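[AMINO ACID CHAIN]
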Amino acid sequence: MSILVLGINHRSGPLSLLERVSLADTEVPKSVEALVQRDNVREAVVISTCNRTEVYAVTERFHGAYADIRDFFCDQAHVAADDLHEHLYSHHDDQAVRHLFEVASGLDSAVIGESEILGQLRGAWDVAQHNGGSRTTLNLLFRHAIEVGKRVRTDTAIGRGTASVSHAAVEMAVDRLGDLHGRNVAVVGAGAMGEGIAVALHAAGVGEVVVINRSPERGQALAERINGVAFGFERLAETLASADVVLTSTGAGGHIITADNAGLRDRAERPVLVVDIAVPRDVAPDVADLDGVSVLDLDDLTAWAEKGRQQRIAEVAAVERIIEGEVERFSLEAASLQAAPLISSMRRRADEVRAAELDRHAARLDRLDDETRELVEQISRGVVAKLLHEPSVRLRQQAGTPQGERNAAAVADLFDLG
């Protein structure tokens, strides 16, 4: 059995490819179900964020599982395997564990140390559990990963300062314009990213913010938190026409802001900055060609975030030391978990022998009163438990080591456990 991760992220592939492999929230459950139906995948968790789409799997055959998951990406992106190969990365066993811990710690994010990834990992894990993808091994792995992510943010300063993509988007807009005070700002999308953007704008001292969302109720709830106003998508063109800054992050899965939108025409006298952090992008490419319209997307955010990377780079070594120790701890826990079935089989076989001996002497035991018979039962169970205690402890402690493998083989042979 092996843990395998395959993925494409903001470093390995262009934004245009990330858009093609990105999964909407409604697509993730079906993807998990489809993956575990494949011959070589026993467990699966699918993570799809603005920075990455990754599949974590428990497999019996590495090469077969690699092909199954690669084909999943090819089907999602509608590209041939040869075209995908240079952008697809993979890790297995300890390297896969280390990679997930780095993701949870924010080391693999465009904004180093960002905190939004922990909620995204927890959400992906929940979906996998509810759809039959995450069981014993991946449950242990993801529980551990979230613990690691919390620990590095407590024990180091990796998350100090700007530590989310949504906050970075606002800071990038400030960096570009110098100041947002007195500007009309529109936030398109009231999901997790939109909420983060709106809260960051409010914290930055921006006045009224207009929230545009497909669900007016959710948009209104967010607007009330930041003393803004909310409209449905029917007011999008009107809102764009009066906006100086637009930050968009919907899960629409396609372009909702296009060059045909009346609100973006004739802006030469009143320029507008559009920041698009959605994957797939909310803003059509030709919008950037309009007079007076500037468009920034995740590629620009990644480049901008590199400026702030040096502020946290000193913390990376401390985070990596924590991760190294946690990878070792997970390896020991996973090995112990793998020893559990053998220990259970050994104890079951011993109890079968104990029960058979009591049955063999049942006629004589029937002469005993109930209290004495119960005492015999307790004594026999206690003898078995004490005899197997030390072998059980050794099998758990030595699991995953050469000595442990030899002991496990000997126990299986001696107890005829198959």
